[in-house]
Design goal:
Bound molecules: adenosine-5'-triphosphate, magnesium ion
Number of strands: 12
Number of helices: 9
Helix content: 25-40%
Oligomer: single chain
Number of domains: 1
Largest sheet: 6 strands, mixed
């Protein structure tokens, strides 16, 4: 028996910027509740646009996005009760952290979302300290946001989403700018979030992250369409597909006096 509940149901979703720049073309897929789901594809294939659509920041030009059985559309987002519920339970961490972080210092940034709630100052402080410890940014709490490095900003952005304890966490390129140890931490946190019943949706072009997370995977191609949907384990073995969508490349070179052609990607140490 399949008792998985569908969280998102996308039906023939297309999106065009300025009516003519194609970002997404005819995307049909479902995302289950309490799953780790990832979109992978090369630069410009439409991943961030899709994350914005899932977070109700953009609406498709064609097709429908059904979320928990209800269509996400402009009319829905004019209903204040719906917006309040959606925005506190569904959080997007932007690819570009500068468009997300708007407070002057790290403590204010982390506590901002909680100040709008009934939670006491004491509890806010405790939660800020907890999430800072989790994300290994305790020493940054008093720092000005403008003084942080790119990776530090990314950690603050992820922490400011986690502190709200949302049901659905959308992470657009979560590991870009992060060092390998911090990438490992993100993978561990994503697993922990899943254990507590959350749904984690990520977008990336990082095959290594996909290999670590083993999510349900949707590969987007350069035509802004779905190339394939399946288990990460199976898709990572499918060199033909990865070559087709340019996530790996083949190169030819001379090795021990012989011409060699081999697949090259950056997520595994490549062998001859
Ligand atoms: N504001 C915008 N105005 C016009 N075109 C845009 C805009 N934002 C994105 N695009 C175009 O839409 C397409 C999809 O962009 P998107 O940012 O969704 O891709 P992406 O897969 O997230 O890329 P990356 O891996 O570089 O983050 C690209 O061709 C891009 O140039
Ligand atoms: Mg992007």
């Amino acid at each position: 028996m399949n008792d998985k509940k569908i969280l998102y149901d996308l039906r023939n979703v297309s999106y065009y910027y300025l009516k003519e720049i194609i970002a997404l073309e005819d995307i049909t897929l479902t995302i289950n509740e309490n799953s780790i789901f990832a979109f992978i594809g090369v630069n410009g294939c439409g991943k961030s646009t899709l994350m914005h659509i899932l977070n109700g920041l953009l609406y498709p030009n064609q097709g429908n996005v059904i979320y928990k059985g209800e269509e996400l559309n402009e009319v829905k987002f004019k209903n204040i009760d719906f917006v309040r519920k959606f925005r506190t339970t569904n959080t997007l961490v932007f690819q570009d952290t500068d468009s997300q972080l708007f407070c002057s210092d790290v403590y204010s940034e982390l506590s901002f979302g909680l100040i709008q709630t009934e939670i006491s100052d004491k509890e806010i402080k405790e939660r800020v300290e907890q999430v800072a410890e989790l994300m290994k940014i305790s020493s940054l709490l008093n720092r000005a946001i403008s003084s942080l490095s790119g990776g530090e900003k990314k950690k603050v952005a992820i922490a400011s989403a986690l502190i709200l304890n949302p049901e659905v966490i959308l992470l657009d390129e979560p590991t870009s700018e992060l060092d390998p140890k911090t990438q490992g931490l993100i993978v561990e946190i994503i697993y922990e979030l899943k254990k507590t019943g959350k749904t984690i949706i990520i977008s990336t072009h990082d095959l290594g992250l996909i290999d670590d997370l083993k999510p349900d995977l949707c590969v987007l191609n350069e035509q802004h369409k779905v190339e394939i949907i399946g288990r990460a384990e199976d898709i990572l073995e499918n060199e033909e597909i990865l070559l087709k969508v340019n996530l790996i490349h083949e190169h030819t070179h001379l090795h021990n006096g012989m011409m060699h052609k081999h697949i090259h990607s950056h997520y595994k140490i490549h062998k001859h």
